[in-house]
């Protein structure tokens, strides 16, 4: 990330600053240029002396494969791999999930609205609304508790077997993160069940967020002393030492949205499922966990 403070002789538009910085011509198109905290939409946007311009480096790796689960007139549902953001972030817009899906479907990204978001290093089902009616219907469903989400996760050892995490969640000192009882905290509820334990104590969880706060599952799990494996931001281990001495470096958060149930336009419901990724199945196996436990975790009733 290049950071530049506009001086009196640096120009009056974003394009002039980019030329001065020697930024590549695709930076604006890929959503990697920010004026203050706002993403620049065109190179003609005005700038003033003292403005902070930030230009993120282009992605050097191709986006992971995205599997489309369902496409209808109103919905588009995908299985998001870890390593890709749901919407544009400071690394850019071109490689976000919404942009990738738009290219697959041959539509404009502006016509796809994510009705829930998975963090960059989390995988699983993401539902996009394609019409205003669908967007409104799914928003109502979330308020009414009819938008069901079921996750599976691998956590540090936890003494509890089943229950509800209900600590309110607010902002953390780092504006990118959240904290239990942080400033502007609002109610949050997450149901969980330990479905299996590995010999070293790591737990395979079934998790259902009842509310939809930013980083909710991750924050609640960490607060309960069961931080998710790979979740560096909330205290989860990023390396795991196995009994034989082998050390595994964790490259993602061990959290996967396995199933989502949403209402359809006919008054019924549609269930979308994403299989547990190979890297999580392999990690659980390396920890000594039983492969049979995944089916229990994905089907565990948390209502």
Which SSEs are present, and which pair or pack?
Layout: E1 2-5, H1 14-21, E2 33-35, E3 38-39, E4 52-55, E5 67-71, E6 75-80, H2 97-105, E7 113-114, E8 123-129, H3 132-144, E9 148-155, E10 162-165, E11 169-171, E12 178-180, E13 190-197, E14 203-209, H4 216-223, E15 239-241, E16 247-249, E17 255-263, E18 269-273, H5 278-286, H6 293-299
Parallel strand pairs: 8-17
Antiparallel strand pairs: 1-4, 2-3, 2-4, 5-6, 6-8, 7-8, 9-14, 9-17, 10-13, 11-12, 13-14, 15-16, 17-18
Q: The CATH topology of the largest domain, please? A: Pseudouridine synthase
Helix count? 6
Order of helices and strands: EHEEEEEHEEHEEEEEEHEEEEHH
Structural class: alpha+beta
Radius of gyration: 21 Å
User: Which architecture of the largest domain would the CATH scheme give at its second level?
Assistant: 2-Layer Sandwich
Question: What assembly state would you assign to the polypeptide chains in this entry?
Answer: single chain
Number of domain units: 2
How many β-strands, per DSSP? Answer: 18
Net shape? globular
The parts where pLDDT drops under 50 for at least 5 residues are: none
- CATH homologous superfamily assignment of the largest domain: Pseudouridine synthase
Beta fraction: 25-35%
Q: Cα distance, first to last residue?
A: 44 Å
- What is the CATH first-level class name of the largest domain? Alpha Beta
- The residue fraction in helices comes out at 10-25%
Compute the average pLDDT. 89
Describe this structure in words.
This protein folds into two domains: 2-55, RNA-binding S4 domain (Structural Genomics Hypothetical 15.5 Kd Protein In mrcA-pckA Intergenic Region, Chain A); 67-299, Pseudouridine synthase (2-Layer Sandwich), CATH 3.30.2350.10. With 303 residues, it is an alpha+beta fold. A hairpin with a 2-residue loop joins strand 2 and strand 3 (38-39). It contains six helices and 18 strands. The model has no long low-confidence stretch (mean pLDDT 89).
């Amino acid at each position: 990330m290049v950071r530049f403070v506009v001086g009196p002789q640096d120009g009056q538009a974003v394009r002039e600053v980019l030329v001065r910085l020697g930024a590549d011509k695709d930076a604006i198109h890929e959503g990697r240029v920010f004026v203050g905290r706002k993403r620049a939409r065109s190179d003609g946007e005005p700038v003033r002396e003292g403005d902070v311009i930030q230009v993120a480096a282009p992605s050097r790796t191709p986006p992971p494969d995205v599997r489309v689960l369902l496409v209808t007139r109103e919905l588009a549902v995908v299985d998001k791999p870890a390593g890709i953001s749901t919407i544009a972030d400071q690394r850019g817009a071109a490689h976000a999930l919404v942009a990738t899906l738009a290219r697959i479907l041959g539509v404009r990204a502006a016509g796809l609205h994510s009705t829930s978001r998975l963090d960059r290093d989390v995988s699983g089902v993401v539902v996009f609304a394609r019409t205003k009616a669908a967007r409104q219907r799914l928003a109502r469903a979330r308020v009414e508790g009819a938008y069901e989400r079921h996750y599976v996760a691998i956590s540090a050892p936890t003494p509890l077997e089943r229950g509800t995490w209900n600590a309110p969640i607010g902002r953390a000192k780092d504006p990118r993160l959240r904290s239990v009882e942080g400033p502007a905290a609002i109610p949050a509820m997450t149901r969980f069940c330990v479905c299996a334990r590995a010999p070293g104590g790591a737990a395979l969880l079934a998790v259902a967020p009842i509310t939809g706060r930013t980083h909710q599952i991750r924050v609640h799990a960490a607060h309960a002393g069961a931080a998710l494996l790979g979740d560096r931001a909330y205290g989860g281990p990023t390396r795991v030492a196995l009994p034989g001495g082998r050390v595994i470096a964790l490259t993602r958060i061990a959290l996967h949205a396995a199933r989502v149930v949403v209402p359809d336009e006919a008054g019924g419901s549609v269930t979308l499922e994403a299989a547990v990724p190979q890297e999580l199945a392999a990690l659980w196996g390396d920890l000594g966990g039983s492969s049979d436990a995944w089916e229990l975790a994905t089907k565990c009733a948390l209502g």
